[in-house]
Design goal:
binds 3-hydroxy-3-methylglutaryl-coenzyme A; Aldolase_TIM; alpha/beta; globular; metal-binding; hydroxymethylglutaryl-CoA lyase; three-stranded antiparallel beta sheet
Length: about 325
Amino acid sequence: MFENQNNGRFVCYETKQFSFIIFEKIQKQKMFLTECPRDAMQGWGEFIPTDKKIDYINSLMDVGFDVLDCLSFVSPKAIPQMADSAEVAENIDKSRSNTKVSAIIGNYRGAEKALKHQSVDIIGFPFSISETFQHRNTNKSQEEAFNEIIRMLELVKSENRQLNIYFSMAFGNPYGEMWKWEDVDFWAQRFSEIGIKDILLSDTTGVATPETIALLFEKIPAKYPEINFGGHFHNRYEDSYSKLKAAYDQGCRRFDSAIKGIGGCPMAKDDLVGNMPTEQVINFMSVEKAEHKLNLLNFESAYNKAKDIFHFQLKQIKDDFKNYIYRRLKMYC
Ligand SMILES: CC(C)(COP(=O)([O-])OP(=O)([O-])OC[C@H]1O[C@@H](n2cnc3c(N)ncnc32)[C@H](O)[C@@H]1OP(=O)([O-])[O-])[C@@H](O)C(=O)NCCC(=O)NCCSC(=O)C[C@@](C)(O)CC(=O)[O-]
């Protein structure tokens, strides 16, 4: 099968007597975007006052993201920054927005706490392809986590909400454990069997390359069409385009990101590897002419609030923009 630039593809059909090639129009799929202020905030050193969090999250609710991953119901000792999530959850204004709200949880108790809040539509559990990271992050083995997820799924169904699974360390790990795509496939199969419908292939510590991203997005989603797969990348600012492109070219239209790429998982390594920056996803969509429904004016106003919370500077933004233009020019020259 060969895709071309005109929203179409040449498909080769073979019967016993004939083989023929036809041109099929393909519907351009809309992007499905998740903004992750939870990932940005959870490792932030100074405590962000609760009212600032609420104000920031409500400004993001106006942008038009499909999902806002903004809450966390884990141990406050492990992640003190998110200890006020219950109060934040009670003050999310969903009246003007279709954006779904997602909360991260690390055990059944966290799921129960999250689901008490009517604003929470989705809970997300970080299942790890690396056994070491499963222990580090949730104090469980993979099998223990899997069994707990089965219980959580029952709970989520009875509450009429949704359970997303992150495949942490899906592209490799920094602990010296062997990585192969077949391990990701093994777990995708098991999660498919229990009826999980949403899996985010996550590059927790930024070890993925465009090649491993392309490999995983080529192999895995095709085998499990009943599951919606997405990309949850952590990377350096300048690697954003090539990583998005690697997944996009394999048909992935679902991406998680955080403004300015701030954040990461504090349980993974000592140094946080930044998130996929949302501005880079927006740049990417404009280059690829990908359809989305973000309100960019509202995005700018949320971006200004992020600037205040995370103290990033205008000069830094200008430098990033200059670097971005330079790289694009280099690609075309
Ligand atoms: C998962 C647990 C809770 C298990 O924690 P545990 O140690 O197994 O639980 P425990 O039952 O032994 O309890 C330990 C303490 O935590 C408390 N506790 C226990 N559970 C809860 C709860 N739900 N809510 C509030 N408190 C809780 C519990 O009460 C106790 O407090 P103490 O008695 O010592 O005062 C713990 O290991 C933990 O909090 N880990 C942090 C997980 C986390 O938030 N990681 C970051 C988010 S995941 C991520 O960022 C990756 C992602 C999503 O971006 C994808 C990717 O890139 O890979």
